[in-house]
Amino acid sequence: MMASTLSCAGLSLPDDRDPLGVWDLHTSRMGPRPSHGEAYAASAAAEAPPEAREGRFNGLIWTVAHPAGVQGRRASREARSMLRGQRVAVERRDRALDLVEPRLTALSLMPAYDTRLGAHEAALLAEVTALQTSWGRAGIGSVAMSMTGEGAAALTHRQMFQQVERMEEARQLLVQLRRLVYHWAWIETEVGDGRIALTTVDWGGDYQTTWLERVTQQQMDLHLDAVRLALASRHALLRLITVAMTGALELALKASVPGGQILLIPAVYRYVRDLLEELGDLPVSGLPSWRAEPTVA
User: Is the pTM of this model over 0.85?
Assistant: First the structure.
């Protein structure tokens, strides 16, 4: 039997990697989404918002697709166990953020030459150092200046491209944060070639679920597990991006670079993501403690 797949359409992150290690982000944006009533039973309580039906849906579409064979009792238990295991993995990485946050704060107060720095910290501080060079001291304003004759002499083409690339990556992360906060989620469960359930969640946490007619209890359980996984993932992603942005601001203050909090967002995001990948592989009981012992630069 083929394995179940978990995908998230509309989520664009650096390197096309899910920092939670659960969702496939290579799913293309889907076309117009049908209303609850059109996709499922005529007894649907309400229709989806008009922008979904018109193809203007700007939220994330979380889809858990199971093979047709999952309808058997044993296969259904295995699929539910998989979904619960993935939710534990998401919660483990969410908990690991409690360790990354003070580590990032301590890093923002460490001198760049501190010998206690690990590989991840050294790579991140290299980005800070780059912004402290002559071409980076103008910060975000140097990108605009480079379009003029005066700025062209101050920046090489490669340096200008690097700053523009950083700004674009930062903009994309800000877009994802806005999408996670302001747009409701769309969570679908598929079995075989058809969708069996749909849940929409608005930004306030209210949700509506519509079921395919003659849905079984096993299928309902599968969908509810998918909803729990998607909501846990949404929460963890919101927190991860927020931690990265806060850390970028702290490091920019250390670097004393105007606009540095924007230019550093991608590097800090990767630092947080890579640490989570390491810490997230540990069992919850085995997560190390972290006590920040910053030294003032």
Answer: no
